[in-house]
Design brief:
It contains 4 helices and 13 strands. The protein is of the alpha+beta class. It has 3 domains: 93 residues; 66 residues, Trypsin-like serine proteases (Thrombin, subunit H, Beta Barrel); 100 residues, Beta Barrel (Thrombin, subunit H), CATH 2.40.10.10. The strands form 2 sheets. It has a 7-stranded antiparallel beta sheet with strand order 5-4-1-2-3-7-6. It starts with a helix and ends in a 5-residue tail after the last helix. The relative contact order is 0.12.
Length: 288
């Protein structure tokens, strides 16, 4: 049965509405997808910008931290320098070096053997003492007297270097503070110094002088000795030569007979290397 005209109009209208609805739905979905894509792109750009900004801030923060660390190190150096200046000022303010002597003399020792006597000083924690090799040369017995008037009869010879005239000893007690070695390359002619030792049996005697010359040649052919006019007598051998900062810059070694105020001390840089060589032969490591 053929469709009537009004039936065709109805069907055509419904079809048109359906097509229009589908078209509008598609267009609407397209707009939604487009907006979502745009939002996603904007979000990605935001994330990228945030990452870039974060990285920049992190770099700036890292730079600031490094600058702070550098500033702290510089401040630490300035504080350390100020402490050194205060120590030197304290010593210089007293013509007899009492500011230095009060601390240093507690680390100096008297060494007595069955054939001679001399001086020495604590060079490392644990009771390690350095002196001249000739102080103990040929001895069969020795005792060490510390500033607290204690006599230590158990003395071990760790080793010695006769060419440098250095001997490393040890006592049982480890309560004594060590003296600090200075850099002998920084020693200046005219600089004030003191020696502490046992001249002619007078224990813990102190004498004052200046540096007369540096890098003098010794009997071993090495230009490794500081010349000083501080009084050195028999028994001073092995004692420390100390600067105004309280640091050991030499170990008293010998004097020229017939001359006045012509004493010589092995420079501290050579003390350190020689002591470490002696210690390494026994313990395979440095002592100082």
């Amino acid at each position: 049965m053929p469709l009537q005209r009004h039936h065709k109009i109805i069907i055509g209208g419904v079809s048109f509405l359906l097509i229009a609805f589908m078209t509008m739905s598609s267009l609407f979905m397209y707009m939604i997808f487009t907006k979502q894509a745009t939002d996603v792109n904007e979000l990605n750009r935001g994330i990228t910008n945030l990452q870039t900004e974060t990285q920049t801030k992190f770099s700036e923060l890292s730079t600031s931290v490094l600058e702070i660390e550098t500033g702290l190190k510089s401040l630490g150096s300035q504080v350390g320098s100020l402490d050194n200046e205060m120590t030197e000022l304290k010593a210089s303010a007293s013509s007899d070096f009492s500011g230095v002597i009060e601390d240093a003399i507690k680390s100096v020792v008297t060494i007595r053997t069955d054939i001679s006597q001399g001086s020495g000083f604590v060079i490392a924690d644990g009771g390690y003492i350095v002196t001249n090799a000739h102080v103990i040369q040929g001895a069969t017995a020795a005792q060490i007297i510390t500033y607290d008037e204690k006599t230590h009869n158990k003395v071990w010879v760790i080793g010695k270097n006769e060419n440098m005239d250095i001997a490393l000893l040890k006592i049982e007690s480890s309560i004594y503070d060590s003296l600090t070695l200075g850099n002998s390359e920084n020693v200046q002619i005219g600089e004030k110094v003191i020696t502490i030792g046992n001249p002619l049996g007078l224990q813990f005697s102190v004498s004052e002088g200046i540096i007369s010359a540096v890098h003098r040649e010794g009997d071993n052919g090495l230009k490794a000795y500081i010349q000083t006019d501080a009084a050195l007598n028999s028994g001073n051998s092995g004692g420390p030569l100390i600067n105004t900062a309280g640091k050991v810059i030499g170990i008293n070694n010998f004097k020229i007979d017939g001359g006045e105020n012509l004493g010589f001390s092995l420079e501290s840089d050579y003390i350190k290397s020689t002591v470490n060589e002696i210690f390494q032969e026994v313990y395979s490591r440095d002592l100082i």
